Amino acid sequence: MKRLLVIAPYNYLPAYSGGQKTIAQFLQHLSQEISVTVVSTRTNELDLSQGYTLHRWLPDSFWRYLDVRLYFKLGKLIADQHFDAVLWIHPYYYWLNRLLQNKFNLFTIVHSHNLEFQRFRSVGKWWWPILRLYEGACLKKADRNYFISADDRTEGIKEWGLDPNKCDVLPIGIAQQQPPTDRAICRQIIQERHHLATDTHILLFNGLLNYGPNQQALEDILQHINPLLLQNPSLHYRLIVCGKNLPASYHNLDAYRSKNILYAGFVEDIETYFKGADVFLNPVRSGGGVKSKMVEAIGLGTTVVSTQTGAIGIETKACGEKLRIAPDQDWEQFANWIVAEVQQHSSTPETYYQTYYWGNIIQQFSRQLADQTTR
What we know:
Largest sheet: 7 strands, parallel
CATH superfamily of the largest domain: Glycogen Phosphorylase B
Number of strands: 13
Strand order of the largest sheet: 3-2-1-4-5-6-7
CATH class of the largest domain: Alpha Beta
Low-confidence stretches: none
Number of domains: 2
Distance between the termini: 16 Å
């Protein structure tokens, strides 16, 4: 069995956000195929790690990226455990990566969940050109680069002149192998929990609500999309907003209760909401990367209406009729798609599960790792 060291430089247990869920599920499924050791931050809950060894060595502050002591701790771990490869999630430890790569001649993989410089450029950070240079240097020196989507792979190759033969796709996955059978039950749970009539169409928006792109998306729902939906008197709906850290200035969206919007806060059983909703809204216009909540929603049988930017990186052909895309800021088309789709009851196509099921993704990655590290 191959032995892989993974550096995951942020808290992901418990998994609240889409990015955290992606890391947690990836490591859980990967550990069923190969031996995995993870080094991550101190606030991860050890009891939640499943099937792999977790070392909580990294501080939770920004200074973890500059902690030179890690060179000695990781060096000893690598020398003791004889790993076949090390996988770095994100490019931020490039300096440490290079030092260890030079000393141990260890096969090095970088898994990019976004093109990071593009993400920070989209949210207005002035230092994105510096990150672009640093990120490019990291990816050029890696033995293998994995991107979250084919679009990111193509863009990365073009942006930094990467060797296409060293670049591949390792997408966000889902735990489901087929459409869920309990959508009607989940719908009933939501209706009872929020006192909704049985003929109410359920719309859903979910995300970490103090994250800039998600907060902008919420603003677009409140100011543009929902007013258009209210103009349709035959549409009987409630738009449920779920997520942590809604800024206090929104006052729990109390002013919008009379406008068919409910704020449910953070919900432990978010899968119930995904399965019980008629349509999931993804009006994201910035931030970059594949939106894991959209991938999850379609896997759980819910139709997604998205902006063009929000749908970047998704395999649209695999989605069939479960994904509807409107041009960015064309809120009239966005609202029209919602109205059209609340009446549809199409199933997620089989090709979607073939593409996004974690089991298939991990098996392919494991085969590639075995091939790459035995050459």
